[in-house]
Amino acid sequence: MENVVIVGSGPAGLTAGLYAARARVKPLVLEGLEPGGQLMQTQHVANYPGIPGTVAGADIIAALRRQAEEAGARFALDAVESVDFTVPVKKLTTLMGETLEARAVIVASGAGARKTNLPGEASYWGRGISACLTCDGAFYAGRKVAVVGEGPAVRGAETYLARCGAEVVATCQPAEVASFDGDGKHLTGISRRGGKPPIPCDGLFLVTARVPQTAFLGDALARDAAGYIVVSGVRTSVPGVFAAGDCARPRYKQAVIAAGDGALAALEALAFLA
């Protein structure tokens, strides 16, 4: 029987692990299929409190994991396939075929950008292609950027980037894009379909819906139409189950917000166990 199982190992999950471990409840952190979450794909972070200058997202994750591990958190390279929260003891079935029982659960499974899967996207993701205006917009002050997306959010992205000092040279829909092009190290432009001229640019921002990684929950927790876990603070619809970070935050997806959620979820879980 575990005291606390934490699902996810991004800033929310790792911070929850740190706080729970310091309370000596020996939490188990299930790292998921992509340990470290979305922050691992961010090359330059310049707005994480206490870290001046820029740092790679992977370095932040490594430091958080080391801190949690040194405090006593345990880690398993596994992901949750299904859950049963209908009984007082929470049950989680993993992809490795294990059934875990826990007194409290913190879901910190994150949310990923809905990618286009067009040629060049994987190669230049984090190397000119971004889905986070707040994270990366300021890096393009005085440089040329393009916006690829649909709906009213595109206009908001243009406004935000202009405020950052970037020059928005073009906006287009994903269906117009043939490929994302670069020099092997960094994005240099966009090739378009239908014989349209290419768009040279230093950076590109995808304005697409984020997808919360919550499908494994089924009907175990209340979720909204987009799949985000419905919370009051960090409390879910099931006592003893808490949600932290991007999987429960449709709007602001920032590492520092996720970390704060993780701390709060751990404290709430400890209060539940008391």
Order of helices and strands: EHEHEEEEEHEHEHEEEEEEEH
- CATH class of the largest domain reads Alpha Beta
Question: Residue-averaged pLDDT, rounded?
Answer: 94
Measured as a percent range, the helix fraction is 10-25%
- Low-confidence regions: none
Output the CATH topology of the largest domain. Answer: FAD/NAD(P)-binding domain
Q: How many domains would you count in the coordinates?
A: 2
The fraction of residues in strands falls at 25-35%
CATH architecture annotation of the largest domain: 3-Layer(bba) Sandwich
CATH H-level superfamily of the largest domain: FAD/NAD(P)-binding domain
Which outline best applies?
Answer: elongated
Radius of gyration, CA atoms, in whole angstroms: 20 Å
